[in-house]
Design brief:
Elements: E1 17-18, H1 29-45, H2 52-70, E2 77-80, H3 83-94, E3 101-105, H4 110-123, E4 126-130, E5 132-133, E6 136-137, H5 139-144, E7 150-156, H6 168-177, E8 181-185, E9 204-208, E10 220-224, H7 269-285, H8 287-307, E11 311-312, H9 317-320, E12 325-328, H10 334-343, E13 346-347, E14 349-351, E15 354-357, H11 365-383
Parallel strand pairs: 1-13, 3-4, 3-7, 7-8, 8-9
Antiparallel strand pairs: 2-10, 5-6, 9-10, 11-12, 12-15, 14-15
Length: 384
């Protein structure tokens, strides 16, 4: 199978078999350059090139790119620093009361659940977490927790530990039939899995930028469906939340009439530029193509792993349709295997007592074969 992208765009991919996008992806060179150039210019010239218009453009560009990614409109997007911050603001905006509940999953990422747990400590709402079997959620059990007292269903589109992908349209249908909204953490899917907020009927979506979107730390996107703008008062607020940002009127709080109300303060703007540039690059290739390519790499990986005796913790690739693969090698110290792989520059993560491998667009069939060859040697080491 041919490589999808030139290694010139991801220079580190020449050296490493970098199978760790579910932790932090490699950044395309033009995105890293854009972020660093901005940072350098600010550090050395302050506001000389960075006036109010330039500041507005940073966010306009990010909103435009994120809207293209999600099938949304730019006024439904806010830029932010990370998914945790965005979800906190949304959870406080919703603040379900004592007689209400929020539905999520026990195995989900803490960032997806904690904001609701924090709100629950104040309001007394119930946070219902669907159980799992060795990291895998039964979607019917999850949907079975939703009732007429549910204010929000908040889950990761793709689970960080196993790569399990949830059917968002099905979840939205059940949530909406009970008057609840669907809040999606797409940190493990945006950039690798096609998302259409209209077709899938998603109400709110957050995604940090440094995983599958190939952006830097310090930038994230938040989608809020237009009909919710007036209903949600962000939990995090600052001068940039206002309709007239440059008025500086502290004696009144008039929210921006769009998702922009969820932007609130000065942030690492260079990171937003880096994320917008990376997102535009992915869109030029097409997320659908990246998705298909990543799944082909994953098929090859899973086949090779099975030959080496690995037990799949993830669902089979054809069921979960993501390129996060979590495996265990029976009788082996999984932490040691993960550590040895990293020492050999096959970059992976230890997770939930297993090993998580997550190829992305810059990987090639050679990377997969190298990872498998290296694993074969490492597994032998333990026997000696
Ligand atoms: C599903 C999910 N949400 C959120 C995060 C992290 O959020 P933040 O970027 O706010 O640190 C991760 C990181 O692993 C994740 O996998």
């Amino acid at each position: 199978m041919d490589a999808l992208v030139s290694p010139d765009v991801f220079p580190a991919a020449r050296r490493y078999a970098y199978l760790n996008a579910a932790s932090v992806a490699l950044m395309p060179k033009m995105a890293a350059d854009a972020a660093l150039d901005w940072q350098e210019d600010l550090a050395t010239r302050g506001t000389v090139h960075f006036d109010e218009e330039a500041e507005a453009k940073v966010f306009d560009d990010l909103r435009q790119a994120a809207a293209g990614l999600l099938g949304a409109q730019p006024d439904e997007i806010a830029g932010g620093s990370n998914a945790s911050e965005a979800l906190c603001s949304v959870a406080w905006a919703l603040s379900p009361g004592a007689d209400r509940n929020v539905v999520s999953a026990r195995v989900d990422h803490p960032t997806t659940v904690y904001p609701w747990s924090r709100v629950a400590r104040l309001t007394g709402c119930d946070v219902r977490l669907a159980p799992d079997k060795d990291g895998i959620i039964d979607p019917n059990e999850l949907m079975g927790l939703i009732d007429d007292r549910t204010s929000a269903v908040c889950v990761s589109h793709v689970q960080y530990s196993t790569g399990q992908r949830l059917d968002l349209a099905a979840l939205a249908e059940v949530a909406h039939s009970h008057g609840a909204i669907l809040v999606v953490d797409a940190t493990q899917s945006a950039g690798a899995v096609p998302i259409d907020v209209v077709a899938e009927d998603i109400d709110v979506l957050v995604a940090s930028g440094y995983k599958w979107l190939c952006g830097p730390f310090g930038a994230a996107i938040l989608f809020v469906r237009r009909d919710l703008h007036d209903k949600l008062e962000p939990g995090l607020v600052g001068w940039r939340s206002a309709e007239q940002v440059w008025d500086f009127r502290a004696d009144r709080l008039e929210w921006a009439p769009s998702a922009r109300r969820f932007e609130f303060g000065t942030m690492a703007y260079g990171c937003a530029i880096g994320l917008a540039t990376a997102t535009e690059y992915l869109l030029e290739i097409s997320i659908e193509r990246i998705h298909r390519y990543n799944l082909a790499l994953t098929d090859r990986l899973v086949e090779g792993l099975a030959e080496l005796g690995a037990q799949l913790v993830s669902l089979p690739v054809e069921d979960q349709q993501t390129s996060i693969v979590t495996v265990r090698f029976p009788g082996q110290d999984q932490g040691r295997v993960a550590r040895r792989l990293n020492e050999e520059e096959v970059v992976v993560s230890p997770r939930i007592g297993a090993i998580r491998l997550s190829p992305h667009l810059y990987n090639t069939a050679d990377d997969i074969d190298r990872a498998l060859e290296t694993l074969k040697e490492i597994l032998k080491e333990d026997e000696t």
